[in-house]
Amino acid sequence: MNLSDFNFDLPRELIAQDPLEDRAASRLLVLNKETGEIAHHGFRDLLTLLHPGDCLVINDTKVIPARLIGRRIGTESQIEVLLLKRRSDDVWETLVKPGKKMKVGTEVSFGDGLLNGRVIDIVDEGNRLIRFEYDGIFEEILDRLGQMPLPPYITHKLKDRNRYQTVYAKHDGSAAAPTAGLHFTEELLDELAEKGVTIAHITLHVGLGTFRPVKAKTIEDHHMHSEYYVVEESEAEKINRTKQNGGRIVCVGTTSCRTLESATGADGILKAGSGWTDIFIYPGYRFKILDCLITNFHLPESTLVMLVSALAGREHILNAYQEAIREKYRFFSFGDAMFIY
């Protein structure tokens, strides 16, 4: 399939720049993946759209303040470093700007020397391995110096960094938020549980794999970066039991979807464990365990649009996106949501 098959025109004013004051006040476009039928709801309508016996799967990764602004030692050149993946205690795989100035051996200082780094290698697609030196606890220093790694299409400054964090975020490690989960409040989750919806937690630390632009003209030539996931035994049991009892597996976000589809065997049984996944889901993929998906509206020609097209069909998705544009839904990370069933 061609990359251009997943393109659409999006007015810039529909890109949400700020989160809503009430997380659950977002709109919810509901799409029947078989018929393409569309309905318009509010996010809290999940209380009627989800059924007792369904299982809601949420990604409890926590975004770290992974964006660091420093300077090359010996110069006044500003360097931006985005932490992507911890390779060992003090070595991180990073994305750096400007990359041309960050050769092996280059040293960078952050916070007037509170944190220093040295480029020790250049790896896939120009990412740099940086070894950090510091006194104290790295996470505490990062909390002082780091900024939330908001996507480049968000130009407004975030007033409260917790708004780029789900209410159930628990395990540090993501360079971006699993944004479909930003709509949930603790109250809404409690109400769903009271109704009889099972809540299962998985962890996938979001890196570049999900968000790196597709440059290949033919999508089959695109390579995903690997991301680390964990599925605990107790959570796998919840999900498998739901499936056996005829309930629906409802993933919150493409990261939850990719985790389950990576850890599920050909027999449709989810296996507990941890590991790295570079799964790339696009039309033609046969889902092994997922039934429904709660997701945001994604960028044109992104792997995320390809994933939802694999679930509901490209024509249905592009039609739903055009309807969302006509109805002035808010797009991307702080935007409105879809429920595909």
Describe this structure in words.
- This protein is 21% helix and 27% strand.
- The strands form 3 sheets. The chain has a 9-stranded mixed beta sheet with strand order 2-1-17-16-14-3-12-13-15.
- The chain has 2 domains: 3-63 and 160-340, QueA-like; 67-145, Thrombin, subunit H.
- It is of the alpha/beta class and 341 residues long.
- The radius of gyration is 20 Å and the shape is globular.
Strand order of the largest sheet: 2-1-17-16-14-3-12-13-15
Would you identify the CATH H-level superfamily of the largest domain?
QueA-like
Order of helices and strands: EEHEEEEEEEEHEHEHEHEHEEHHE
**Which sheet architecture does the biggest sheet show?**
9 strands, mixed
Average pLDDT: 96
Low-pLDDT runs of 5+ residues are none
What CATH calls the topology of the largest domain is QueA-like
Q: Helix/strand/pairing class, anyone?
A: alpha/beta
Overall radius of gyration: 20 Å
Assign an overall shape.
globular
Task: Provide a brief overview of the structure.
Helices cover 21% and strands 27% of the residues. By secondary structure, it is α/β, with parallel strands linked by helices.
Which short descriptors sum up this protein?
single chain, 341 residues, alpha/beta, QueA-like, Thrombin, subunit H, 2 domains, nine-stranded mixed β-sheet, 8 helices, globular
